[in-house]
Records
---
Amino acid sequence: MLSQRPSASPAQRSLAMRLLLVEDHKSVRQALREGLEATGEARVIAEAATAREAIAAAEAQSEIEVALMDVELRDPELGASAASGVGAAVAIRRERPRFPVVFYSIQDDDSYFREFRAAGILSHYAYVRKSNYLLPSMLIPLLHDAIAGRSFIDPEIEDRVDEVRERDAVSPRALLEPNELRVAELLAQGLTNEQIAARLGLRDARAVSRTNGRIYDAWRLSESATDEKVARARAALIYLYDRPILWDEEGRALAPDRKGGWTPLFDEPASGAAGDANKAGGEERIR
């Protein structure tokens, strides 16, 4: 429960930051509003529960100075196609360049960090974990800094953004065009060419076969696979692990290690207790 504070004077309210509060949970949004306004340094003049509402509010109310933006914004009408808080900020900045935004999130999904990196946001922002900034008063300095043109990223989030960037730099999926990526995804699910063609609305399953060839070339499977079935199985592994994999002459799968070399992706099968220990170690390494 919030402690009682004296009401802000008219002079204080006139100096307070004019804030757009974007949060899809009503109860959290209300608690944030009360906590932020209790500091006397922020005045929430607009609220939004979705990216669409946030964009509309920022465009309609030019007096808004800064936004506190949740990253994951569910929209019942749009479902999975709904924009995130990062997407909303990018859209707002098309009309209002360098519009100040403080992103806060509990999400740890790679897609959010990937979207943030691709957005190219350079200044007038902060990006923090909710768990590290639980109190509304902790957000006030970040909002001031965003308005002043400074930038800040929570070290934990920065580490995750770097991790995703490094992974994407060697991602086999990044070598495929969108249609090829979709075919690879369905191939990894065990669908036949005919089933993939039906799923994608293609008239001829040979189009899938040709796409498979492009995938094998991109992932260098044409050089190592002995036949279509082997190439298909290996392509499925590469897609699922999303890391480069090579096969030696004995058919062992090799993946890059941190020292720039190649190491077996799977341990050799063994029997008895030693085999169980090796299996556990191999599973740990793959993770």
---
Amino acid sequence: MDKRGHGRHTGEMEASLATGPRSPATAKAGPPSGPEAAAPAALPAPELSVVVPAFNERENLVPLFAELRQALAAVGLSYEIVAVDDGSRDGTAEWLVREGRRDPSVVPVLLAANRGQSAALAAGLRRARGAVIVTLDADLQNDPADLPRLLAALEGADVVSGVRQERQDDWRRRLSSRIANAVRRRVLGDTITDIGCSFKAYRREALDGVPLFVGAHRFLPALCLFRGARVTEVPLAHRPRRHGVSKYGVANRLGRGLYDLIGVRWLRSRMLDYREKPPAERD
């Protein structure tokens, strides 16, 4: 889903939030407040948040949301769909805003400019309120019907990473992905088979405190693993792209991934690793 191009750290990016309360500094003036003016009740946190970054994916949004809602209904959990527009120019942002007004479970997040997949994902994770967080690209190449399989695997894990089966990409993309995964596993020592698969599930606590940076979307399950999270994998369906064009090629998939690998290797060597004793072990 990336640009793609280099973005900036989450703390530096500018994002306009299409729904939800605004800060007093940015909110437009409204009716006078007083004792009789009740504050709007905050919605309870859902059990599940689905974070969907999107860049120029307008044609995919209607079928994506239809399939995603069907999968969410089958799961039976309360949910929100945090849809992040990464500076699209094809009407993606406008569609998400309309959908958010129509359906309160849709939370549009609009970035002020195209900052890349890592920034869009970070913005979505920041807004997600669920105890379980699922990430999914908007290109429809992953099948939302696999959501129950992801969540079932999370019962015994902290992170579930999908592995695309019978990939519907050309040989160049498959080859570059295979090389990048093999090199990353060799350099970092992680066990993730297909880190490029965007369809993943996380317990909220597995993501708490994970450092986010340009390129982090490529390494998120590995970063959780390095911090002691239980990571498992499940095979998932993969489909050809229906609409739009891929934002990745061999250069930005392989070349930039290897460049980021240097930084992640350093980061792993400097990561803190500690846990507090549970109350039962304190005596």
---
Amino acid sequence: MFPLLCNNITRVSYALIFLGITCGSLKAETGPSAKHVPQRVISIDYCADQYLLKLGTSSQILGVSPKSVASFSFMREKAKNFNKVRPTPEELLALKPDLIIRSFGGGISINKFLSDHKIPIIQIGFLDSLEDINQTIANVSKALGNDELGIALVEDLNRRLLAVPNIKTKSPALYMAAGGVTTGKGTLVHDIMSKGNLRNIVDTPGWSDIPLEQLVSLRPDIIVHSYLGDLTKNSGKWSAVHHPVTKRFLESNTAIAIPPALVSCGAWYSLDAVEMISRVQREYTIH
């Protein structure tokens, strides 16, 4: 079972999140007061864009980042309807926002700058699990004054996750990034793989080079990557994906190509990746 939001999936427990009663540390810092509903909101990077475009009303959205329409942005179609704002101090001040949402945009000094000018900020932290994503949905929707929208989204995500079959025997798998790196425990991709009924063969926390020796000794049944075309064509000359061992596994193993927009930033659509992996894993097990 997915231990989301204090291990309870009742509407009452979700409501507690929006009242500030939580079971863990918050990953997003709520800037504006609970009584103020912001009406001039700007998101300044493509990760923050996803949350504003999903949880904000059109009348609240003053602007989104230039990357909001990129191919790796899940909400790129909706983003086309809004002004594109560069995360520079001058441009932000000129637009007079009453709330800024950011993940990484604007550089390390932007938070202090905005604070000095008394502009509220929602800082979205590093999200390494679906639990963190639901917590962030709660925080952002509350800050935007759209609590009910956030509650409904969290409830829907829980229902969908509970519908994913929990298979005891998980297929051994490896995630491959075009840069020649992979991921282990403590990352969102690892959590997505695990909840999709895959057993990540990499036990090294965080991101690391693709372990060629583990490819040979542990032999993953499934390769997961986030390139819809040929993975090797999106790689540098010296990437480990060009190694003969890696090529052999890419040719012989079942590959799951997750659309880049589902893993570029952690958000509600990360569950789409879980469901996709789960479907392929079941088909692989049957055959």
